[in-house]
Specification:
It is built from five helices and six strands. It has about 170 residues and is of the alpha/beta class. The protein has one domain. A six-stranded mixed β-sheet has the order 1-2-3-4-5-6. Helix 3 crosses helix 4. The protein starts with 6 loop residues before the first helix and ends with a strand.
Amino acid sequence: MPHTHSTSEEEKLSLEHEAARLFMRWYEKQTSHEIRHLWHNKPTKPDVSCLLDGNKLDIEVAHLYGSEVEAMRILGRSLTEETRRELSVQAQEHNTHQRLLNALNRILAQKSGKTYRTQRAWLLIRNAHPEWNADIIRGLRSEINVPTEHPFEQIWMLGDFSGESGIVRLD
């Protein structure tokens, strides 16, 4: 019997695939390096893989949300207990920029402690908050805490959910 994904797993895969596709389009435009073909991986590897200049590259995808309501609206479903807890802590900060900055730094810290079975991994964080975009993220670079030790060759951020404002390298 073939394995079928749950609806929430399918949604997660779809969001990751879309984020990677938007990133790849911007990366190619910005660098002139060819980045093609996209496929999903098992949990011991980053979420998606592609070919960058013909060489395999794995990309771990994370999403940055401003609130529980926002995450539920974008995802179209209820959230895991862990995500609810993180967003609840996040919601206690009333300054939107500080709240998002704290959430971004938390994602970076969390992802930096992981290990992946791959030769080459990049981290892509997709911003899902409508008040942030690539220009604002560039302006906050000095406040973004990228851990010195992490498993990623490069760390990127997709400036907005639909990928219109571009990408920003964080490391």
